[in-house]
Amino acid sequence: MATMITTADTVELQGRVRELKKLKNAVILAHNYQVPELQDVADFVGDSLGLSFKAKETDADVILFCGVHFMAETAKIVNPSKTVILPDLDAGCSLADSCDAKGLAKWKEAHPDVYIVAYINCTAAVKALVDIICTSGNAVKVVNSIPPDKKILFVPDQNLGQWVTAQTGRQMILWPGACSTHVLFTHKAIFRLRQEHPDAEIVAHPECLPAVRMMADEVCSTEKMMSYCQNSPAPEFIIVTEAGMLHRLRKEVPGKVFIPGPTDSCHCNECSFMKKNTLEKAVAALENLSPEITLDEDVRKRALVPIERMLALGR
Ligand code: 13P
What we know:
Elements: H1 8-23, E1 26-31, H2 36-39, E2 44-46, H3 48-57, E3 62-66, H4 69-78, E4 83-85, H5 94-97, H6 101-110, E5 115-119, H7 124-127, E6 132-134, H8 139-144, E7 152-155, H9 158-168, E8 173-174, H10 187-196, E9 200-204, H11 210-214, E10 218-219, H12 222-231, E11 236-240, H13 245-252, E12 257-260, H14 279-288, H15 297-312
Parallel strand pairs: 1-2, 1-3, 3-4, 5-6, 5-7, 7-8, 9-10, 9-11, 11-12
The chain binds 1,3-dihydroxyacetonephosphate.
């Protein structure tokens, strides 16, 4: 797991990031799964929903987005006059890869009356085809806002979709996508760990498989994990999501013990895409204002419509 070892190099690079941030009038937005040393230089660290609001609200000239590609794309969609840079353009997402725009367009043509809800973990081209976007933090609210007579297709995460159906009672057609990191958590590995920590609560992300979600005390977005662990009286928590989450929990919820959720082969679980961003790459991105996110203007405008519908529902 990416535990933080602060070296002289880290301190120097973080200093350089702060210097460049001022020079370029940049804001640094980081997802909860980023490496600790990037989280610690960010102006805002949060979940996909919080980051979307921050990207829209900023008046900085440059957004350095420390997250994965679809997140930086979302920032560009909502704030097109800003220069949006991503430390590593190869920071992708298995969920976004599991639903291609061509396939979805074909499906839509065959089912023109179906209302399409897309999890924010998808490309701009997919966003441009759908009716509303949701994140794990507001998926229940978004689905509850859809008129009851509408048939719904939920893309691309079938696990989040199943969880939303269980919460809302709303049947939906589910696109067969999944997060390659979250599906690695198993009931067996977590059950064993719970036996060693009988007082620990299990907090899981809704992208996990049903057998894992079923054993959790709480299923929620990464931001809600923060408030849940703050407010729960439990002394220990098994955190069943990408291991980057533990940095903020340990920093902001002192005095409690956070244990990473295990897979069958590893005591913790990391998303290799999220870990592509590094401090060195962040420095280079700020120096060169590159790699930059650019979008076709027609796609951007169409992708903005379902995002704005989501943002209008509030935080
Ligand atoms: P959150 O919005 O809960 O942070 O989830 C983001 C994500 O991509 C999970 O894999």
